[in-house]
Write a structure and sequence with these properties.
Layout lengths: L3 E7 L10 H13 L1 E11 L11 E6 L2 E9 H20 L10 H19 L7 E5 L6 H7 L6 E4 L7 H4 L5 H8 L4 E4 L2 H14 L3 E4 L2 E4 L2 E7 L6 H9 L1 H13 L4 E8 L6 H14 L7 E8 L6 H21 L7 E4 L8 H7 L2 E4 L8 H9 L7 E5 L12 E3 L4 H12 L3 H17 L2 H15 L6
Parallel strand pairs: 1-2, 1-5, 2-4, 5-6, 6-7, 7-10, 11-12, 11-14, 12-13, 14-15, 15-16
Antiparallel strand pairs: 3-4, 8-9, 9-10
Helix pairs in contact: 1-16, 2-3, 3-4, 8-12, 9-12, 10-11, 10-14, 12-13
């Protein structure tokens, strides 16, 4: 059996509990085949002359898996990670051209670090390894590996959205980025919309040829392209719901808010999540539906994220101001409309919070998938479930059509959707939840992993003559 080699920005110990869909899928795959998980160590070293033959790596063996990590220099961290990955690709791929900073130094560092990682990884590879590369930090990695003579099967999965051609083309290096994707045998996206954007880009900006549905010839190579919506591990999450920490949180929330209806939002503090718009909609709800005063409480968790970037300082100040204004304008001595928490909450406690909440607000301005939506559904009591209010601009909206879908830019529409969710009859809640659960059970993280790796195997098979 071929080994699996996973490459991602950060590496997690496969023997420890995993938080995200990627970590769950990778852990299971690596346990089955053995292999390597390669990525950045998270450490920065003092600046040093550019290494021609790759980065120095640290290897840790955990069972039949090798965790291989490489450091970044401070200059690489600032220009590759903070610069190109988080000041160019992240904002542009989330449609925020106004927040992008285009700088030649960033682009040079992005290519240089991918080249360095490719050299370091190439030394670890065996001829029959299957390589699975993840996310926007590493788009050029396969092209750099091919330049070193690597002919292994290589797949790529983009966890964030792919913007339409007119937005993508704003990146000065957009042509080379897309050309780099043709070094992969299989390119996976979260949604069919992302696949459509990619195909439209190829039609508008390149001479690539569509050979068949999901298969393109361009830049001297053939690449397969498909949507693979990532899921969650339903059984593992259900265990968290029933765990001591999960049940303790549920009982505490139910007791403390016995007279009120809870709404919950769990996000990173990121401008893509639509947090100010969500608070403005909640304020509008209190303005227009007065019966929710002294009755509905929004618990908004916004974990710190990318705090080294100026845009996040501005967002934190805005959130502090909005929450303070709502609480001062509508709060009572024994009721605070918004409980805003700017820190992470232990993952084991979140299922209890989800289960105690009548409504979940998952309303990003743009998101690749958003697994909070699926975790909220999995945490519900099927005989008395809560209601998911979901942005139509989250990748999850393509699958979760029975959620209450909203336009997060429309404050009044979102306020009315929240009111509808708070007052929805139990028969409708049960019916919607059952349908949504059938979807997330069918398309769980195990389906995602298996389908991608199966498709990668077929992608490297020669086309019929």
């Amino acid at each position: 059996m071929s080994r699996l080699v996973v490459v991602s920005n950060r590496v997690a110990n496969p023997q420890k509990p995993a938080a995200g869909g990627l970590a769950v899928a990778v852990r299971e795959s690596l346990r089955e085949t053995g292999g390597i998980w390669f990525g950045w160590s998270g450490r920065q070293q003092e600046d040093a002359p550019e290494e021609k033959t790759g980065a120095k790596v640290t290897v840790q063996t955990v069972g039949n898996v090798q965790l291989v990590t490489a450091d970044l220099s401070r200059e690489e961290y600032e220009n590759y990670y903070l610069g190109y990955a988080n000041n160019v690709l992240w904002p542009v791929f989330h449609y925020r051209l106004d927040l992008a900073r285009f700088d030649e130094r960033f682009a040079d560092a992005y290519r240089r670090v991918n080249r360095k990682f490719a050299h370091a990884l190439h030394e670890q590879l065996k001829p029959d390894d299957v390589i699975w590369v993840h996310d926007y930090h590493l788009i050029p990695l396969a092209a750099e590996l091919r330049a070193l003579g690597c002919d292994n099967p290589i797949g790529f999965f983009l966890h964030i959205p792919l913007p339409p051609p007119q937005v993508l083309a704003a990146i000065p290096e957009h042509a080379s980025l897309v050309q780099s994707l043709f070094a992969y045998d299989l390119v996976g996206f979260q949604t069919e919309s992302d696949v459509t954007h990619f195909a439209h880009y190829l039609e508008a900006e390149t001479h690539a040829e569509r050979l068949s549905e999901g298969k393109f010839r361009g830049f001297g190579r053939i690449a397969s392209v498909a949507a693979f919506p990532i899921g969650i591990d339903i059984e593992e999450f259900s265990k968290l719901v029933r765990s001591r920490e999960g049940m303790d949180m549920f009982e505490r929330m139910r007791k403390e808010y016995s007279r009120r209806q809870l709404l919950v939002g769990v996000d990173r503090l990121d401008y893509s999540k639509g947090l100010p718009q969500r608070l403005q909609a909640f304020r509008r709800l209190l303005e227009t539906h007065e019966e929710n005063r002294d009755r509905a409480t929004l618990i908004q968790i916004a974990a710190p994220s990318r705090e080294a970037l100026d845009a996040y300082d501005d967002l934190r100040c805005e959130m502090d101001s909005l929450c303070g204004a709502i609480n001062s304008d509508y709060g009572e001595l024994d009721w605070m409309p918004v409980r805003y928490i700017h820190r992470s909450v232990a993952r084991k406690r979140l299922p209890g919070l989800y289960r105690a909440s009548r409504v979940a607000l998952v309303t990003p301005l743009r998101d690749g998938m958003n697994l909070v939506a699926k975790e909220y559904l999995a945490a519900q009591d099927p005989t008395d479930p809560g209601v998911l209010v979901l942005s139509r601009f989250a990748g999850a909206a393509e699958q979760l059509k029975e959620a209450v879908l909203v336009n997060p830019y429309d404050t009044q529409e979102m306020a009315e959707a929240i009111q509808r969710a708070l007052t929805m009859p139990i028969e409708e809640r049960v019916e919607r939840h059952a349908s949504l659960m059938a979807t997330i059970r069918r398309y769980d993280v195990h389906w995602w992993r298996k389908r991608f790796l199966d498709e990668l195997k077929h992608a490297v098979e020669p086309l019929p003559a």
